[in-house]
Structure formats: structure tokens, C-alpha cells
Amino acid sequence: MTNKIITIIILFVTLVIPVNTIRAAMPLIKAISPNSGQANANITIFGENFDSTCRVYFGISGPNKISTVDINGDANYVRVAGNYAYVADTKFGLKILNIKDPVSAEITGSLKIPGSAQNICLSSNKYAYIAAKDGGLQIVNILDPANPFIIGNIDTPGQAMAVDIFSNRAFVAVKNAGLVIVDILDPVHPIITGIIDTPGYALDVYVSGDYAYVADAWAGLQIIDITDPSHPVSAGSIKLSDWTNDVFVSGNYAYVAAGKLGLAIIDISDPAHPSIKGNVKTPGYALGIYISGNYAYIADKYSGLQIISITAPSHPEIIFGKSEAIEEGRSVFISGDKAYVTGGKLGLQILNIIDSGNQGIIGNAATTGPSLNICISDNYAYSATDTAGLQIIDITDPAIPSIAGSIITSGAANRVFVSDGYAYMADKSSGLQIINVNNPLEPVMAGILDTPDQALGIYVSGNYAYIADSGAGLQIADISKQDNPLIVASVETSGQSYNVYVSEAYAYVADGKSGLEIIDISDPKKPKLISSFLTGGEARGVCVSGNYAYVAVNNSGIEIIDIKSPFNPVLEAKLNLPATPYDIFIYDNLAYIASGKAGLQVLDITIPSDPVISGSLETLGFASGVFISGNYAFVADGAPGIEVINRLRIGINSEPINFIDINTISTHVPRELIPGQYNMKVINSSGEKSMIRNGFRIVEPGF
Predict the structure, then answer these.
(1) Do the beta carbons of residue 493 and residue 476 sit within 8 Å?
(2) Between the CA of residue 525 and those of 484, 530, 693, what are the distances in Å?
């Protein structure tokens, strides 16, 4: 008998341990074939310890060149507007490039100008103002990009090196004469109205408010008070340890490209006493600078494009430097997810910057109150902003979102839903607020409906608004007349209703300690509570996709509930998160979760019974709302306002793999990926993972 028991134990160990060992072993990627091709290409991955349910992920590895346009000259400076790039060519004047398709960008217009084109500033797609060194300031009509022509010019008292436009005036950095101010109200007949000499060589200028900030070579940064443009006066200055070549102002900081010193960040909150806030040395020689979102992009003469995180201005950090991407950088301009870099004889170089490193925020709109929830409609983001009411953000260019309109509500705006030109606000103690947003620049209150308790959540479907009304459960309002909404029915739930999601004939209520409540609303005037599911903590948010409800649970994470039979909901899976989740948005087999202090979490829910965290991003504030639109995730992030994140940065899962054996798998590259260089990651079902940097290059879009 003893021998039989020993034999059984040995057999059990022989059968079980090798299987577990294989599944628990770390996968290893050895090779990918092919390692380049179009999106949607079929690829084979060779390695070790793959399992039959592993997943493959693609993440862009950093800036990568899309194209280089030879301008047959010397590209010194670039500005972009719409589908065109305007290049200052020191040899031949102005070159205008059609960049609608960056892969095949080409010169569409050119203009020889007097002097040597050093710098450009654009004004309303109508005029280009060119600092032309000995040619002074040249004003060019660019209404027809194929046929630009000079309409005005003015000699400057020295060499015009750079220009900025502000309030019908051109501010020209004149190398050996300082700052020259030109009245351009009539661009055909510009007039010099003011001059102030600076102690060094004025190489660049940036105007913000009442001040002009001049990069003054060895004399550092000069701050000029331009309150009276006819009598500019020095307000303050600060000298750096190397030449100040270029300057960009954002908020209370001036960001300076300072040669061998790299990036210098200067606190200008008191213009009379500027001080260095932070500094980071770049590998080469910092010539040009552009600020976009939380990043400084440096054109670094000997080391290409350097990308620096400026989230903490006192501790800027280089997060990406790619010397092989560009051989020489003189100036840089950021538009959307593209960087345009001038490279002298190399011409204009266009790069994807869809991933700038570990951070993924590409734009921020500071709201006047804490942003708690967000909804997107057309080119606008609508933010529920607590006591500041509704804030409307123009997101036409997601990299530079800006407040377009706002309206104060009578309560505290908690959640917002936009439908057919109206914003429906769950306004806590003030119930439902209905706002006409057909003109987003001038929102108008249309109707108000008091609810029995605190309106916390809102969902609109057809002529009805479904309101999660805290202790009063679900309130259903007829909104066919926006100026006279009426409660037509209600369902008293057993918990505290935080949020509601409507799908087909059912309303799914995140009901606090009572979990998920499912209500039949096939007749909105006669709703019926048909079932409930007790979650592991307080249910705060809910989103429905297909046969599953995804519930955000306080102090627990995400619970995925099978609702194929709404009368009998069943737990399918649960996944703990680093912090409490508040809001969920499902898009393309990914669940985007606003997770408080842990920022944005992204789950791969291709297999609902086996959700996997595929990416995460720590936002600047406290993430409580999320909405996906196109290629972007918009996060309601509390005090910092709205954060705009390129969702492709967070992590993209491939289509299901074809498991050949533990050393070989094949899959398709995701069709939606854009051209660029991608890291590849394989994750086994038990969580072990392996990544190969720059594993696959997409050379053309998928079809």
C-alpha cells in the first residue's frame, strides 16, 4: 500500500510540476520575422516559454522620423499652420511645404527675399513675418501658399534675427540693436514705434502679456516692459553661464535654450527679479526650444531632438534623446503628435512624437474649478467642474486645449452628459441642470429640475434623463421639453446611487454598498428593479459593453459582471487596482479607468474572464472621469483640469495570437497603428512578460 501511495505521488509530481513550470517561466523574445512592414502585417515571434493564451502588445518606442524634405537650401527655422509648414531658408528665403501627408511632404511654394531669412512668425494664416537679418523685417502674403509675395517691409537698425507678433505689433530681436517694435496695423506700411537696446546680441524674442522676453546671447534673458510700446523699458534680467539662444514662455516660466547649459527654466513670476528654477544639460548645444504640454522639445545641434519632462520645473528630466533621428537641430515646432525640426542642409525633418517617454500627457486645460467628470461632443470637451459649473474646452487641437465657454450652475456640477446640443448636468443639491450648448462659446441655461436628493450621476437616452440621485435612487425625467423637464418615475434603491448607465431596455445603477442594481426601463414611466449584485465594496461607477457590466468598486478595483441574463447577474472576474476607480469608459476591447491618485489605468478586456492591466499613466491630479474620443483619452483630473492623453501611448494589444508551440507564436500587427518604431511585449497568462525594444517598424498604414 505504501509503495502505491509513493508511486501515485511521483506520478502526480511528474504530471503537474512541468506544466506549472512552463506556465510560470519567464517568456523570452529572441527574434521577430519580419521586423518591419505595414500595419496589419502578419508576424512570427520566436523565443521561449510562450503559453497558449499569451498576449502581444505594441508600444511606440519614441520619436521616429516620418520623412525628410530637402528644401535645396539651408533650413533655419520652421512654423506650422494647418496643412503647411513655413521654413526660413537662410539662402533662398521662404519655402512653403504641403504637409497634409507628412510621409510625402513637398515644397508647394517659395519666395526669394532680401537678406537672409532667419526666423518666421505667422499671423492668422494670412501673413508671414520674416526676420531677414540684413533684410530687416519682410512681410509676406501667404493666402495662396503656392504663390507667396512680399507686401511690406522695413529696415531695422541692425540684423533682424527673430520676430514675434502681438496686438498688431511685430517685436523684432535685432542682433546688435536690441528690441525693435513695429506697428503692423497696416502691413503694407509698417512703422517702427519703439526701440530699446540690450547689452548682448538679441537672438530671439517671445511676447507674453505686458512683457517681451529677449534671448540676448551672452547677456542672458532680458525682460522688457512693453506696456507703452513706444517707450519700452527694461524690467529685469538674468545672466546664464552660456549663450541664451532661444526662449519660450509658458505660465510663470521662461524656458531657454542655452547652448552647452542645455535647458534653463527661469521663474518670471516677478519680472523684476527672475530666478533660475531648474536646469538640465543636453548632450549637445541647445539652439531651439518649443513647449507643448508638460514637455520641452530642444533642437540640440549635435545630439538631435531632446525631449524633457517639465512636470516639475525645479527638476526637469530628459526622457528621450534620439541622436539618430536628426543629425542637426536648429529649431523645433510641435503640432499635434508631430515634431517639425529644421536641420540646415538636411532640410525639414518630420517626426512622430506619439510617445515622449514614460509620460503620456500631450495637453492640459486648466479649469477654474476641479474637473470631476467629462463628456466629448464634436470638437469640445464638457467638464463638470464642481462649484465652477460647466466648463467647455475647445479640443480642435488636442495638444493645446483651451477654455471656450462656461456657465455657473446653482449647485455643484458632478457629472455631465451631452446630447443633441444640450448638456445635462447632475448638479448635486440643485438636481438636474439642462444647458443649451448649440453655441459652445455662449452656453445658456435652458431648464432646471429639482430632485429629491443629491444628483450624482446622469445618463440621457431618447427623451429621458436617468438620474442617480444618491439616497433617492433612480429618478427618470422626461426631457422632451428642455425648458420644462418633469420627473415621470423613480425607483428607490437600497443603497446610495452614485452613477447610472443605460443599455437597451435596462438601467444599471452603481448603488454604493448595495452594489449593482439592474432596473427594467422598457417603459420609462413604469420602471422595475429586477435584480442586484452585491459587489466587494461600494459601487461608484458603471459602464456596460456587450454582455458585461464593468463596475468601479471603492477599495476593491474593477468587477466584471456577466449580465447576459439581467435577472441573474454573475461575477465573471475582478481585478484589484492601485487606487480606487471612479469612472470607466470601454473602447475597442480596452477599459479606460479614472483611478484617483493612480491616474489612468487601462485594462485589456478581450477576454472578460481574464482582464489584464495593459498600461497606466500617472496624471497630474486626481483622476475621477474619463472619455475616449478618436485617438485621445480625456481625463477629468481634479485641480489641474482636463488632461489630454494619446491613447496609443498607453498600450495596444494585438489580435489574438496563433500558438504554434512554446517557442513560436504568430499574430497580426494592429491595423490602427501609425507608421513608426514600436516596442513589443509578450505577456503570459500568469503575468510574466518580456519586451524587445524597437522590435517592429511600421513603414506604412494598414488597409
Answers:
(1) no
(2) 17, 15, 57
pTM: 0.56
Amino acid found at 369: G
Rounded CA-CA distance 260/339 in Å is 22
| Residues present in the chain in total | 703
- What pairs with residue 635 in β-bridges? 626, 643
* CA atoms within 13 A of residue 332's CA, in its CB half-sphere: 30
* Amino acid, res. 164: D
Q: Cβ-count burial of 15 within 10 angstroms (0-12 exposed, 13-18 middle, 19+ buried)?
A: exposed
Cell of 451: 430632485
> What single letter denotes the amino acid at residue 397?
D
Task: For residue range 116-169, list pLDDT tens digits in order.
Answer: 999 999 987 799 999 999 999 999 999 999 999 999 999 999 999 999 999 899
E runs forming strands in 422-555: 422-426, 432-436, 444-449, 457-461, 464-468, 474-478, 486-491, 499-503, 506-510, 516-520, 528-533, 539-545, 548-553
Q: Alpha carbon of 514 to those of 200, 457, 526, 534, 553: distances in Å? A: 70, 16, 22, 6, 11
CA-to-CA distance for 105 and 124, rounded, in angstroms? 22
Place of cell 552647452: 260
List pLDDT tens digits, range 466-510: 999 999 999 999 999 999 999 999 999 999 999 999 999 999 999
**Residue 640, all three cell numbers:** 489641474
What whole-number distance in Å separates Cα of residue 552 and Cα of residue 533? 13
Q: How far apart are CA 374 and CA 385, in angstroms?
A: 9
Q: Mark 480-510 as b/e (b = at least 16 C-beta within 10 Å).
A: eebeebebebbbebebbbbbbbbbeebbbbb
